[in-house]
Specification:
This protein has 303 residues and is of the alpha/beta class. Helices cover 22% and strands 27% of the residues.
Length: 303
């Protein structure tokens, strides 16, 4: 029996674990991946206070070590179901093992959205990728396409120019949504070109990506563009599939909370990107984790 179980080991989960351990709560953090979550897939972080520049894996390790120093446990496992009906929260892991805790913080984050076009699933890992940091080096001197126009698309497109001979950013609108500083860097990069008002209708290839089928949203014109890789950055979906029966999710699949990170179920809190929130950044996720941990602590005091 734990005082607190935390589902998710990104910046919100690790921060919550650190605060909970420091408050002398018997705490376990569960995640199916490596500590850090999406930070592990980010090459360079420039907007985390105190660091002009730090790699995602480095910051992840610092978070993880800090949490362990205060006594929280780490468990690498996949959560497949939960039972939140009683005063004791039950977390069911793949394989059937159950973890029990008096309070729960859900910090499971998000995952990349898919285009859901022909060829995407078939060519995943064969030129289709959702992580430039992971796969960029495989495309040295190649032509790659980045789909999207937000911060992630532009930032990862810039990163890919370290390897690729050319990067084409395909965006369904006629202007980017990325932060101005990222736009400036992209427009100034000779290796980056843009295709506006356009969507990807198909990713083509036998054993690997060879081209994409494009459609202009304004003219309806269909074209084909040769490419060796396609990196997709069109947003994220919350990792909440295992919570469908709990009543915690809103219409978009995110978890609604109040200012203390409390959900509608007593003793259950949510933090970070999985929460319905205005801004999803490392610093905001960390703040959520701190608030959630202290709210859980005060909840446990009432038991």
């Amino acid at each position: 029996m734990y005082d607190l179980a935390i589902l998710g080991g990104g910046p919100s989960g690790l921060t919550a674990g650190m605060y909970a351990g420091r408050a002398n709560l018997k705490t376990i953090v569960v995640d199916k991946g490596l500590p850090g979550g999406q930070m592990q897939n980010t090459l360079e972080i420039e907007n985390y206070p105190g660091y002009k520049s730090i790699t995602g894996p480095q910051l992840s390790e610092l978070y993880y070590e800090h949490m362990l120093e205060f006594g929280a446990e780490w468990r690498q496992a996949e959560v497949v179901d939960v039972d939140l009906a009683g005063s004791v929260k039950k977390i069911i892991l793949a394989g059937g093992e159950t973890i029990t805790a008096k309070a729960l913080i859900i910090a499971t984050g998000t995952q990349p959205k898919k285009l859901n076009v022909p060829g995407e699933r078939e060519l995943a890992g064969r030129g289709v990728s959702y992580c430039a940091t992971c796969d960029g080096a495989f495309f040295r001197n190649k032509h790659v396409i980045v789909v999207g126009g937000g911060d992630s698309a532009v930032e990862e497109g810039i990163f890919l120019t370290r390897f690729a001979a050319q990067v084409t950013i395909v965006h369904r609108r006629d202007q980017l949504r990325a932060a101005p500083i990222l736009q400036q860097r992209a427009f100034a990069n000779d290796k980056i070109r843009f295709v506006w008002d356009t969507i990807v209708e198909e990713i083509v290839g036998e054993n690997r990506v060879t081209q994409v089928k494009l459609k202009n949203m304004k003219t309806g014109e269909v074209s084909h563009l040769d490419a060796d890789g396609v990196f997709i950055y069109i947003g994220y979906l919350p990792n909440t599939g295992f919570l469908q029966a709990t009543g915690l999710l809103n219409a978009n699949g995110y978890i609604d909370t109040d200012g203390t990170m409390a959900t509608k179920i007593p003793g259950v809190f949510a933090a970070g990107d999985v929460r319905e929130t205005y801004l999803r950044q490392i610093v905001t996720a960390a703040g959520d984790g701190a608030v959630a941990a202290m709210s859980a602590y005060h909840y446990l005091e009432t038991l």
